[in-house]
From TrEMBL:
UniProt entry keywords in alphabetical sequence: Transferase
Domain of life of the source: Bacteria
Molecular function terms, GO-annotated: transferase activity
Name listed for the protein in its UniProt record: Phosphotransferase
Coiled coil region boundaries: none
Length: 263
């Protein structure tokens, strides 16, 4: 990013795991810069899902840098995740044909439950497999693979953690960090959100706001995806030696497995 310094910009790290995001400022103008950003960002900007894309440039290293309007704001907190505007923005994303068309143009194929299960089985370490709840969950996944209707395939974010929701100081809501975007069952996003943030007694109301009815089939799909994503987070935490987070996810997985026993 040296050339931006040479052009008179000041750069400050904008955080994030990758360390490739910056807040750039020059003459009072602020931009959010990111190296090697997902090319999907242009379509997301056009739909108003992320802050507006200003430009895209290839720098001397061959890397691509994107610049978006800088938004002063904050992350949503856990208690705000059940709000109607969260449901409405997810519905907009999952129903968007332009976004789905863009991912297809990028030659992205749908991620089926079978593909997800194969990947998780291939990724688990011996240490993770020592946990009884993980082994029990893997058996559950094998026995309850969703029989998916192709109509359920949509653009899926894949990590709807409250930290990825940006609320600007002008009350604009965005969903950011799209590195894991995929074509898959939209219940992937819904399941993790509901199990993490919304009391089960309020699921029917939240789903109605989102635009669907709570059904046995939907509950089965949400539980299956939440279980498999939780195992993935346990493995990720173990690999990065974040053992406190790993234990939190193990407890969460155990709670999910105990919930809705009829499914």
């Amino acid at each position: 990013m040296e050339q931006f310094y040479q052009l008179g910009w000041t750069l400050d790290s904008a955080g994030g795991v990758s360390g490739e995001a910056y807040m750039a400022e020059q003459d009072g103008q602020k931009l959010f810069l990111k190296r090697n950003s997902n090319p999907f960002i242009a379509a997301l900007s056009a739909e108003g899902i992320v802050p507006k894309l200003v430009w895209t440039k290839r720098i001397e290293t061959g890397e691509v840098v994107t610049a978006q309007h800088w938004k002063n704001g904050r992350e949503l907190n856990a208690n705000e995740m059940g709000q109607a505007r969260v449901a409405h923005l997810l519905k907009k994303i999952h129903r968007s044909q332009p976004l789905l068309t863009m991912l297809k143009r990028m030659e992205m194929s749908p991620i089926t439950p079978e593909i997800m299960l194969h990947k998780i089985n291939a990724s688990l370490s011996r240490d993770v497999l020592t946990h009884h709840v993980v082994r029990k969950a893997l058996i559950y996944l094998e026995d309850h693979i969703p029989n998916l209707d192709p109509r359920f395939y949509a653009v899926v974010h894949g990590d709807v953690n409250h930290n990825n929701w940006l609320l600007s100081d002008k009350d604009e809501l965005y969903l950011v960090d799209w590195e894991g975007a995929m074509i898959a069952d939209w219940a992937i996003d819904i399941g993790m959100l509901l199990y993490n943030y919304v009391p089960e007694s309020q699921w029917a109301e939240w789903l109605e706001t989102y635009g669907v009815k709570e059904t046995l089939d939907l509950n089965k799909r949400m539980k299956w995806y939440t279980v498999i994503q939780s195992i993935g987070m346990i493995q990720w935490s173990e690999e990065h030696k974040r053992f406190k987070e790993m234990n939190t996810w193990l407890e969460f997985l155990n709670d999910v497995m105990k919930s809705n026993l009829f499914i």
